[in-house]
């Protein structure tokens, strides 16, 4: 960096300082909104994954119960013959 290229904000006229501050404020607001959106999206994904795995466990339990029922039914039907 060359110190000749750097200027202090104190050396700038007040209008230019306000303009720079305004641009920084807008950029900050856009970035805050982007981060909030990303956080919300991540929360939704986590919740959907949680509910998916929870539903998967319920389906797995139902499937196991069905298999038990089928085995019992098969066992009873063969013993009648």
The mean pLDDT is 83
Task: Supply the helix-strand structural class.
Answer: mainly alpha
User: Major sheet, described briefly?
Assistant: none
Globally, the shape reads: rod-shaped
Distance between the termini: 95 Å
Number of helices: 1
Low-confidence spans: none
| Alpha carbon gyration radius | 33 Å
Order of helices and strands: H
Count of DSSP strands? 0
Helix content range: over 70%
Strand content: under 5%
Number of domains: 1
Overall description:
The protein is rod-shaped. Helices cover 83% and strands 0% of the residues. The relative contact order is 0.04. It has one helix at residues 14-80. It has one domain. It starts with 13 loop residues before the first helix and ends with a helix. The chain has 81 residues and is mostly helical. It contains one helix and no strands.
List keywords for this structure.
81 residues
Write a concise synopsis of the structure shown:
The chain is mainly α and 81 residues long. 83% of the residues lie in helices and 0% in strands. The longest helix has 67 residues, at 14-80.
Question: How does the SSE layout of this entry go?
Answer:
Elements: H1 14-80
């Amino acid at each position: 960096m060359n110190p000749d290229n750097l200027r202090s904000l104190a050396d700038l006229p007040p209008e230019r300082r306000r303009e720079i501050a305004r641009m920084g404020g807008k950029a900050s607001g856009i970035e805050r909104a982007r981060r909030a959106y990303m956080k919300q999206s991540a929360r939704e994904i986590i919740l959907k994954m949680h509910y998916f795995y929870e539903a998967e466990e319920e389906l797995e339990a139902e499937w196991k119960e069905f298999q038990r029922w089928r085995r019992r039914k098969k066992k009873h039907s063969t013993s009648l013959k």
